[in-house]
Amino acid sequence: LACRSYRHINQVVRVYGEKHKDFIKVLESELSGNFEKACKSVVSFAADPNAYQASLLHKSMKGLGTKDEMLVRLLVTASNRRQIAAVREMYHAQTGKELAKAVASETSGDYKKALVALVNANYSMN
């Protein structure tokens, strides 16, 4: 999986699913631990990078406490305004919540201002 293009991975998953069963379920039944997580992550990201990133953002903020390292890494690595806009839309579709409001409720101070600015793509590339 790690040496294949996303297009190729998606084709393998689709064809396998047509002939056998859900590829993710096969990974879950045949693999375990970190290797299982890594393979499922590659397949999920290849299928829809924005949906995958939105689900990770949700995971970083759900439950008690915020996984700050994960939250910052996900927001800082969004490559452009279009990508973050697509992730915002997907986050809303998955959770019914606005990403900026979710981030604001989990953070405070200048940290909050910086992360909300990233979510809203309110920054200059200069």
Helical content stands at over 70%
What structural class do you assign from the helix and strand content? mainly alpha
For the record, give the distance between the C-alpha atoms at the N and C termini, rounded to a whole number.
37 Å
* Main beta-sheet annotation: none
Approximately what portion of the residues adopt beta-strand conformation? Answer: under 5%
Q: What would you call the shape?
A: elongated
What does this protein structure show overall?
The chain has helices spanning about 5-20, 25-30, 35-45, 50-60, 70-75, 80-95, 100-105, 110-120. The protein has about 130 residues and is an all-alpha fold. The mean pLDDT is about 90.
Fill in the keyword field for this structure.
126 residues, 74% helix, 8 helices, mainly alpha
Question: Could you write a compact summary of the structure shown?
Answer:
The chain is mostly helical and 126 residues long. The chain has helices at residues 6-19, 23-30, 33-47, 49-61, 68-76, 81-95, 99-106, 109-119.
How do the helices and strands line up, and which of them pair or pack?
Blueprint (H helix, E strand, L loop, with lengths): L5 H14 L3 H8 L2 H15 L1 H13 L6 H9 L4 H15 L3 H8 L2 H11 L7
Helix pairs in contact: 1-3, 2-3, 3-4, 4-5, 4-6, 7-8
